[in-house]
Amino acid sequence: MSPIALIPRPQHLDQLDEPPFVLGETSTVVVEPRPELIQTGVLTADLFGRLSGRAIEVRYAGAEPAPGSIVLTRTAPVTDGGPGADETYQVVVRAGRVEVRSPSVAGLVHGVVTLRQLATVDEGSVRIPAVRIQDAPRFAWRGLSIDVARHFFGVEDLKGVIGLMAHYKLNVLHLHLTDEQGWRLHVPSRPKLTELSSDSAGGGRPRRLLHAGGLRRAHRVRRGAAASAWSREIDVPGHVNAALHAYGELTPSGEPTDVYDGIEVGFSRLHADLPATRPFLEAVFTDVAAMTAGEHVHIGGDEVLTMEPEEYARFVALAAQVVRAAGKEVVGWQEIAHTPLEPGTVVQYWDTRVDPEPFVRAAREGARLLMSPGSKAYLDMKYDASFPLGLEWAGRIEVRDAYDWEPTTLIEGLPAESVIGVEAAVWTETLRTLDDLTTMLLPRLAAVAEVAWTPPEARDWADFRGRVARHGQFWDHLGVAWYRSPQVDWSTRP
């Protein structure tokens, strides 16, 4: 039997001593007649139709499916189990039929993506090896954060990245929408934010903005690809020069700041006690919450270098209050752990150079930790010293560095149960094109995805190294740029 190269590695996989499933002229996708399942069926038919070069029909479940069918079945909801249990899925591939079963649309999509990874194409013939797979994620939050403020990446770019995320079973797209250099999200109640501060970027390159309508289109792709969530970040009280340029009343002098196109941080901030501050936060976060389908809104909170701790704590409390009043849960970068937090607040860990004691204390008081260590999961770090893209402040991250780490033991003394997930991040100070972005993501995004999905006892670098080698051909098929790490033998082919 040929080796199986699934990423993330599933919990249970049995190769069956049977002939493979072959997608034939009469193959169909069978679903129950529910809107959300029809959408998943259309996604499946389109995916395998493009792969085979022929149209595949979607049919409703009823009579016995015809031979050669791919059958998607939604099972009863999970009433117990750990985080992400509703994303459990089962795949059974036999010569005459493929069955994908899950209690959720997300789980069905995971099963379909698994089939795509298993599929091989030979002269137009699509084959899937006979297997039985039972799988579920380790963490419910498996994310990717993309900075669209320093350099802009629009809806079409995001659609491509969403496809990659779905392929590796990542389920939260976190958009860093505002920073010193630009404000990229149209906020109806504060139109000058994009009228005056969207046409700037790091390096002085004019860029654009994201409207709610465009994000809704991308979200439809996101739901079709992975039925998952957004986390939109409005970074306050620091990283706000773009806001100060648009609304001078947010500065003590009442005068707007100049446009900034450098890469320095920590020099701008909002002021908790200015009369304009609270109305600004209420307007912005209320609008952002209204256009966010997920449960969380990210308030930033990082790298505020010119604010006294007491004012910073009051500001974080105010921002959190506004977000909760808008019906969303609060996420913030690790610095917010230095302030009193409501239980359930998500603290995103990023800077491994600092004393972790505040994060341990926050976790013990009810905060939840999202692990994005810069030395492991910041995918804008250089691969090596000679690599032309990226930064090095957190070190250099080769593929093995992105793979060989354990989220629950990274911080000594942190309660393991407080860790709710893993999120890779890519910052765009040096990234100007989609090719730049995907080169930094691949192959490291696949490594972080396996850390987020697969239990540590089932992960092994040597095994992963062999599996990821077989994904290079898929990236070539997509036409995306990627890095041929010397740690992997890319000559391996399916």
Mind explaining what this structure looks like?
The protein is an alpha/beta fold and 494 residues long. It folds into two domains: 124 residues, Chitobiase/beta-hexosaminidase domain 2-like (Chitobiase, domain 2), CATH 3.30.379; 338 residues, TIM Barrel. The chain has 15 helices and 18 strands. The strands form three sheets. It has an eight-stranded parallel barrel, surrounded by six helices. A hairpin with a 2-residue loop joins strand 8 and strand 9. Helix 1 packs parallel to helix 2 and helix 3 packs parallel to helix 5. It is globular and about 75 Å long.
Question: What brief labels describe this structure?
Answer:
seven-stranded mixed sheet, eight-stranded parallel β-barrel, 2 domains, TIM Barrel, alpha/beta, Chitobiase, domain 2, 31% helix, HEX_bac_N, 494 residues
Give a short summary of the structure.
The chain has 494 residues and is of the alpha/beta class. Helix content is 31%, strand content 18%.
Shape: globular
Strand order of the largest sheet: 11-12-13-14-15-16-17-18
Average of the residue pLDDT scores: 93
| Radius of gyration over C-alpha positions, nearest whole angstrom | 23 Å
Strand tally is 18
Major sheet summary line: 8 strands, parallel, barrel
Q: Give the N-to-C terminal Cα separation.
A: 12 Å
How many structural domains does the protein architecture include?
2
Query: What is the helical fraction, as a range of percent?
Result: 25-40%
Proportion in β-strands: 15-25%
CATH class of the largest domain: Alpha Beta
What name is given to the CATH topology of the largest domain?
Answer: TIM Barrel
Output the structural class: alpha/beta
The CATH homologous superfamily of the largest domain: Glycosidases
Q: Number of helical segments?
A: 15
